[in-house]
Amino acid sequence: MLRRVRRVLAATTTSVLVLSMTGCAGWGGGVGGGGANTINVLMVNNPQMVDLQRLASEHFTKDTGISVNFTVLPENDLRDKASQEFSSQAGQYDVATLSNFEIPIYGQSGWVAPLDAFVAADPAFNQKDILPSMTKSLTGANGKLFGEPFYGESSFLMYRKDVFASKGLTMPTKPTWPEVADLAAKVDKARPGMAGICLRGQPGWGQVMAPLTTVVNTFGGTWFTKDWRAEVNGPGFREATNFYVNLVRTHGEIGAPQAGFTECLNNLEQGNVAMWYDATSAAGALESADSPVRGKIGYVAAPVMHTPSSGWLYTWSWGIQQASTKKQNAWKFISWASSAAYEKLAGSELGWSRVPAGKRSSTYTNPQYLKAAGAFAAPTLAALESADPRNPGLQPRPAIGIQFVDIPEFPDLGTRVSQDISSATAGRLSVTAALNRGQQLASDVADRYRSRRAVATAPGPAVAKERAP
Superfamily for 155-312+395-450? Predict the structure, then answer.
């Protein structure tokens, strides 16, 4: 969901070919053939997935006799391809990497197969070890499980411990947003060229709208009420957006209106900012062997206002296409790829910093993983465990999601609203004007959902006649 761009993907995107275990296709090429013991997997090209691709032949295929043809694509291309494939039920791919944004939507549409029966027949997979927040985010409104996570993330606040110490400041373990604003003012210009905080301002439903929506939630706002009334210019949404925009304009990074995940990561690494609120997955880069700030960063809970927690939830997960005729073998692949055993395999062969973490409780009791991720493992787990995709704010919601609203219209709606908020961050538009325009866009979406619900609940002719006086 989040269209974040990892610094570590730069080399991967330009150098990794789409490999098949039975041959090689061009980048984004067609799927290889195969008989009953071959499955086709559509997969995003991030480093952890590429690692899995390298390990699958020697381990999964060797152990099960099931060959895997991988098609590996950049994130945006992957989303487009998966949408086309699953909506048409073409059956070309048995398994695809889908996020917790797509999984509930695809499940409701009947595009992905329920996994409950496979899980029940495979006790070694140990679904109870999967973090409850992950299971919730991949479960449809009908209570059926439609995906299994490969790795996951939440969000937290990162800060320069050495800079805070030099100013005699203490970071609360569970800060409030007013406390963060106060600290940002005190560390602003603590060193030449250093801003107090970095917050995304780049347009995009998965850029500025991801962190901002978590702020909206904890300030008491929401995109929509439970009965599908738009609240984009409501009090909570307005207060949160004014706070966010004012904070980044007053004490934020240079070029904030165009700063996304990558820009903020670079700013923290290069000493240009003292704090950053963003994805827990950033910690791996900050604590890598070549990071100039390794050992200098502290990690605390996502700041709150009126809620007990406010971190987001995101996962790249596996889903089985409903049209697949090889669901049993597809499940065997998913069971292997999302298993605790795979994490141990990746850790022992590739290094524990490359383990696809963030999905299993057992990962956070593994001494080898904790040795590699000790600086951020505990706050990451706390963030993941406290994330509640079905109850992220102060009021009931009409759809699941923390940093997004899990409806097909949200990518377009969120992106269009984000463009005006980015303009407000740049000083070209007032927050009030931005949110009033967003309210109209959101109201158009809400009207459609209310209309559909009215049609669905309207009595049929026989019932209407029966009720007539």
Answer: Periplasmic binding protein-like II (3.40.190.10)
